[in-house]
Design the sequence.
């Protein structure tokens, strides 16, 4: 039976003194112009309003909250909301991917690439859908010389 990748990673980190892993969330991509999951969720709630009310007029936060409560949607979780606004899995992936289209790595990604190039952190675990960290330019070459 193969070893669970998380167990394997944990064992490798435990056996390498001074090594660490970074767990990254949506905040790391904010300076690249990517909204957080909360921002996408709020956009989704507005889209739900547009679809169900047949109205694209912008609402205030209070008006949206009142509409959600009146229509029994005040406790929608992220997955349930996505099921309502984009029920087809392929269309859902496209809708989420639209938030990352034409984005470039931000300063945070570049700094993380720098600490990776220096060997300070070798493992990054992310909950993000974007690939901005992987695309971030490193300021170091393979010989450890600063490029910029």
Sequence:
């Amino acid at each position: 039976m193969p070893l669970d990748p998380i167990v394997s990673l944990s064992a490798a980190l435990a056996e390498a003194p001074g090594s660490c892993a970074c767990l990254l969330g949506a905040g790391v991509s904010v300076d690249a112009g990517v909204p957080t999951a909360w921002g996408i969720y709020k956009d989704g709630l507005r889209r739900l309003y547009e679809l169900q009310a047949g109205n694209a007029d912008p609402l205030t936060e209070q008006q949206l909250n009142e509409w959600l409560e009146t229509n029994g949607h005040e406790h929608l979780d992220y997955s349930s909301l996505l099921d309502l606004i984009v029920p087809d899995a392929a269309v859902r992936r496209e809708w989420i991917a639209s938030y990352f289209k034409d984005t470039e790595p931000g300063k945070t990604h570049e700094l993380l690439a720098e600490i990776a190039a220096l060997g300070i952190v070798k493992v990054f675990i992310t909950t993000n859908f974007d690939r901005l960290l992987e695309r971030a330019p490193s300021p170091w070459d393979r010989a450890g010389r600063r490029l910029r």
The first strand starts at residue 21 and ends at 24. Helices lie at 5-14, 37-53, 61-70, 78-85, 89-97, 107-117, 132-135. Residues 37-53 form the longest helix (17 residues).
